[in-house]
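Structure first, sequence second, as always.
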């Protein structure tokens, strides 16, 4: 075992650095990103989507975001077995990508009481108002 560690010392060092870097990025970039979300982002009448006839630049940015998101998901899956922030990396990758049902997933996640409380606390510390969420349909409010 020790021989294997000595043979792969460079790879293990790089993985350790990536792990530490991902933790630091999560600590600094998460509050910043949460403060950028408008308070009415989750409301149904908030303008969504791209205007018809997207420019090449917008397509390029969308492609790069999806590529980065897929890359982070793959790296996160690898980090589940290696030292690192696998779940956080997968989560960041999923949030970067564009796919059908993403908005429903985001809304479900932000409605979790501990998530909403944490997000609004971070937003308040950055001088932003709390997120406004649409009301749940009556069928979702009665849990038996």
């Amino acid at each position: 075992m020790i021989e294997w560690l000595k043979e792969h010392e460079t790879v293990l060092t790089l993985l350790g650095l990536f792990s530490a870097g991902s933790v630091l990025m999560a600590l600094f970039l998460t509050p910043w990103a949460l403060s950028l979300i408008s308070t009415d982002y989750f409301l149904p009448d908030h303008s969504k989507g791209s205007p018809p006839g997207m420019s090449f630049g917008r397509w390029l940015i969308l492609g790069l975001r999806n590529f980065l998101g897929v890359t982070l998901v793959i790296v996160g899956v690898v980090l589940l077995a290696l030292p690192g922030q696998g779940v956080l990396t997968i989560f960041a990758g999923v949030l970067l990508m564009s796919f059908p049902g993403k908005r429903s997933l985001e809304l479900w996640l932000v409605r979790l009481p501990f998530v909403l409380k944490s997000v609004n606390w971070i937003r308040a510390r950055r001088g932003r108002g709390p997120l406004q969420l649409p009301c749940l349909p009556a069928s979702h409010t009665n849990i038996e």
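Margin note: The chain has seven helices and no strands.
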